[in-house]
Each structure stands twice: as structure tokens, then as C-alpha cells.
């Protein structure tokens, strides 16, 4: 069954919606996790994304864009609200997932230094505009080709390549003062 | 190297380290200007790794969604009148107002015609 048919069926059939859920829950979870930086909020917001999608699905109209781009939009709005609600509070640092790399042989000091470097990079990523964060997540976490990222983000493949170049240039500039301090 | 070449080199390099394009790109790192960007791509590849949601959470959420869908289906269907209650009531009120205004206007015109007829005959 193609996606468009499944989406139409899911408007009235809970089992079909369950299939869509299985197909996209990991992707949405990853997106929310890397935007928020912790599993607790990632679970909370992922649940909200799918409840909201289920409630609004009967009014969803397919216009050629992949269904997941609609889910990402819901996720983006919920993450934006989450940031607004937390704007006066300090961000929770990313959990150890990024600090744990099985097989890495390093002393405690080196591990701490690596963890700090990772943390700084992840913080810099979260300072980027939303579309750039999303691009990095789709590219590195989901490992999607540029053309597919373009379809999801409503841009051409060339525009995605340029955005990627600008994103890394901006990240490098953002990290440059910290890198110099670390020297 | 111009900006477009730099962009293409960075994209190709990234796609190669992610396994999206075949072949290694060792000589790409010879370009000084872009070396920092390629190192950043390597760093991003190392930290942006897929995470798996807790299987219990995944299962529980699936169950909750199905339950919510079933409960909603079990709720009595809202009638067309209830769905558009406000619009129908406003429409009815406006219709009534128009009717009253029409009757008043007809009455006024009739009186005016009668008065004009009396003046003409008197």
C-alpha cells in the first residue's frame, strides 16, 4: 500500500494510523531528542506529536509533500512552544548518549574533554535556526540523500546543498572563539 | 577554490563519510580553506547518531493512541446541527430580521401610496 492510500485510510482506521505511527515514531523521536537534548522531553513531545496528528488527520489534505513533512511541522511547533515555556529556565544538557561511544579507548581526562567538545557542538547546533537544525538531523541522524531532504523541506537539491554549506560555515564561526580559547 | 566548488566538495565529502556516495575522499582534505569544514563534518558524523526510544515507551504510546481512537469512535456522532449550531442560529436570526424589515418596508410603502392617492383624488 502506498503512503497516500495509507494516510487516507488512517483518517478513519486506527490500525492504519498505527502503521503510520510505527513508520515514523523513531524519526520524530530523534528529531525531538536532538532539538531538546533529553529523553524525558523527547518522549513527552513525541507523544504530543502523534496525538495531535491523530486529532488533526481528518482535516489533513495531501498536496504532494511527504506525510512526514507534516509530522515534522507539528513536531517543530511543539518544540518551539517547549522552548518558549522554558525560556527562563536553563537548558538540560544532553544526556550521556553522545558521550558514550563503545570501543573508545581513552583516559578519564580525555573522555571528559571529548564530552565537553561534544556538548559545545551540540549546544552550537541548538543555537542554529530551526531549518538548519532539521537539515543536520535529516542528514546525519537519518542519513537521507540531499534530494530526499529537499522534498521533506520543500526545497530543491541545490538549495539543500547551499544550506548545508552555509550551516557548517556558520557552525565553524560560532565555535571558532571557543576553539581558540581551548588552545 | 570558489564558493560553489567549496560547497560541492563539502557535500561530496559528507555524503562519502555517511556512505551515501561511494568511494573515500582522502585528497579532499588537502584544500586548506575547507579543511576546517570537513573536520566539522567528521565531528558531526561522530556525535549525531540515531537514538532509539525506550521500547516500553514506544509500545505504551501505540496502545494509548489506539485506545484514544477507539474511545472517540465509541462517542455518539455529533449531528450536523450541533456541528454548525452557531452558524445556523446566526443565519436564522438574520433571516428573521430581514423578514421583519421587509414587512415594515411594505407597510411604509403602502401607507405612502395611500396618502399619495388621497392627495391626488382630494
Description:
The complex is a heterodimer of chains A (183) and B (122). Chain A has 183 residues and is mainly alpha-helical. Chain A has two domains: 1-95, Rna Polymerase Sigma Factor, Chain: A (Orthogonal Bundle); 108-183, Winged helix-like DNA-binding domain superfamily/Winged helix DNA-binding domain (Arc Repressor Mutant, subunit A). Chain A has eight helices and no strands. Chain A has helices spanning 3-10, 14-36, 39-56, 67-85, 108-127, 130-141, 146-153, 157-182. The longest helix of chain A is centred in the C-terminal third of the chain and has 26 residues, at 157-182. Chain B has 122 residues and is mainly alpha-helical. Chain B has five helices and no strands. Chain B has helices spanning 3-17, 32-47, 55-74, 80-83, 85-121. In chain B, helix 1 (3-17) runs parallel beside helix 2 (32-47). The longest helix of chain B is centred in the C-terminal third of the chain and has 37 residues, at 85-121. The chains are: A mainly alpha (183), B mainly alpha (122). The interface between A and B is large, with 45 and 38 residues.
Which features would summarize this protein structure in a list?
heterodimer; A: 183 residues; mainly alpha; Rna Polymerase Sigma Factor, Chain: A; Arc Repressor Mutant, subunit A; 2 domains; B: 122 residues
Number of helices of chain A: 8
Total beta strand runs of chain A? 0
Which CATH class of the largest domain in chain A is shown?
Mainly Alpha
Main β-sheet of chain A: number of strands, strand sense, barrel status?
none
As for the CATH topology of the largest domain in chain A, it is Rna Polymerase Sigma Factor, Chain: A
The CATH fourth-level homologous superfamily of the largest domain in chain A: RNA polymerase sigma factor, region 2, helix turn helix motif
Helix fraction bin of chain B = over 70%
* Gross morphology of chain B: elongated
Provide the β-strand percentage band of chain B.
under 5%
* Quaternary assembly: heterodimer
Q: Helix content range of the residues of chain A, please?
A: over 70%
Task: Please mark out the parts of chain A with pLDDT under 50 across 5 or more consecutive residues, or reply none.
Answer: 97-103
Low-confidence stretches of chain B: none
Largest sheet, strands/sense/barrel of chain B: none
The average pLDDT of chain B is: 85
Average pLDDT of chain A:
86
Q: Could you tell me the radius of gyration of chain B in angstroms?
A: 39 Å
Could you say which overall geometry of chain A the principal axes of the C-alpha atoms support?
globular
Largest interface: A-B, 45 and 38 residues
Amino acid at each position: 500500500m502506498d503512503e497516500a492510500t495509507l494516510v487516507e485510510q488512517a483518517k478513519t482506521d486506527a490500525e492504519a494510523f498505527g502503521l503510520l505511527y510505527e513508520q515514523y515514531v523513531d524519526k520524530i523521536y530523534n528529531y525531538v531528542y536532538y532539538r531538546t537534548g533529553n529523553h524525558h522531553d523527547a518522549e513527552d513531545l513525541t507523544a504530543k506529536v502523534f496525538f495531535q496528528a491523530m486529532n488533526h488527520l481528518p482535516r489533513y489534505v495531501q498536496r504532494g509533500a511527504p506525510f512526514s513533512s507534516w509530522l515534522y511541522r507539528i513536531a517543530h511547533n511543539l518544540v518551539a512552544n517547549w522552548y518558549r515555556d522554558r525560556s527562563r529556565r536553563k537548558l538540560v544538557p544532553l544526556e550521556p548518549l553522545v558521550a558514550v561511544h563503545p570501543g573508545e579507548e581513552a583516559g578519564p581526562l580525555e573522555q571528559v574533554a571529548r564530552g565537553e567538545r561534544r556538548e559545545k557542538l551540540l549546544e552550537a547546533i541548538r543555537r542554529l535556526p530551526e531549518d538548519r537544525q532539521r537539515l543536520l538531523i535529516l542528514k546525519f541522524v537519518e542519513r537521507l540523500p540531499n534530494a530526499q531532504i529537499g522534498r521533506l523541506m520543500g526545497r530543491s537539491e541545490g538549495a539543500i546543498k547551499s544550506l548545508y554549506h552555509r550551516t557548517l560555515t556558520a557552525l565553524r564561526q560560532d565555535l571558532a572563539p571557543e576553539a581558540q580559547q581551548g588552545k | 577554490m570558489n564558493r560553489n566548488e567549496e560547497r560541492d566538495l563539502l557535500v561530496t565529502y559528507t555524503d562519502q563519510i555517511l556512505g551515501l556516495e561511494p568511494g573515500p575522499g582522502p585528497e579532499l582534505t588537502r584544500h586548506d580553506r575547507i579543511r576546517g569544514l570537513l573536520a566539522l563534518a567528521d565531528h558531526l558524523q561522530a556525535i549525531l547518531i540515531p537514538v532509539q526510544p525506550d521500547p516500553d515507551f514506544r509500545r505504551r504510546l501505540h496502545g494509548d493512541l489506539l485506545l484514544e481512537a477507539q474511545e472517540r469512535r465509541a462517542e455518539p456522532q455529533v449531528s450536523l446541527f450541533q456541528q454548525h449550531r452557531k452558524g445556523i442560529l446566526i443565519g436564522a436570526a438574520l433571516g428573521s430580521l430581514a423578514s421583519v424589515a421587509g414587512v415594515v418596508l411594505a407597510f411604509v410603502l403602502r401607507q405612502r401610496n395611500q396618502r399619495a392617492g388621497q392627495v391626488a383624488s382630494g
